[in-house]
Model the fold of this input.
Amino acid sequence: MDTIVRSDESTALSAVSWPAIFAGGVVTAALTLMLLALGTGLGLYVISPWSSSSISTTHAAMAAGIYLLVVAVLSSAVGGYLAGRLRARWISVAIHEVYFRDTAHGLLSWALATVVSAAFLGGAATSIVGSAASGGGSSAPAERLAIAADRLLRPDYGALTRGDVVARPGAALGRDISGDRADVLRLLNASLRSRTDIDGADRAYLVQLVAARSGLSAADADARVSEVLTQLKAAADTARRVSAQLALWLAASMLLGALAASLAATEGGGLREGTWTYKRI
Done:
């Protein structure tokens, strides 16, 4: 059986049919982007921006990862099938060699689609998947830092109304806070980048700054700083875990996509050559 060869009136100039590979790769990339857009629309439709009626970010990332697997299998299978079905015929080539070449065509079409997607569609795909995983919300580190700084420097209007701030001459309510806010952002950003807690001196300065800007007592300012820092570290840790999960899901989807494209190409090539029925018999 291994010695069976195929003869055909067509002439093949190369063992690789690049037009078929290109066609399959382009179709794979286009279908991937379309399915990602569809998934984002469905995800944003069912995920509410309100925490009381929405799933967690971790569960949303898992759902996005599973959908990545589905997208990779469907788009890669279609592109690989086209690469195998549209490829040029080969003369006097053993059946097992034809099988290998068809598999290689599917793999090459998947590889081409991956490179094209990374080079030209990477920004769009990242935006689509990121918005789906976060439920449409923004989780950029810069925005998280800005929100944390606003919470730290927020005035205590209750103390201001009671007149407690007058008893503390050091309170700086009503003055320009741009310089102090920049100091807070630098301290928070340095802590997140180094993944370490703010040292004692900087933390003491931060507590004093919050007390002066908010009108809180030193104890209340210390409690606010502790609460905001805990929330900021928890948000950063959640973002890190979600990014790691999405990276693992993406790797798994790429692996399944390569497998789907290779298998679909062998089927497409067999149907073109008329050997698919023979193999089944």
In short: Residues 218-273 form the longest helix (56 residues). The chain has two domains: 5-137+241-280, 141-235.
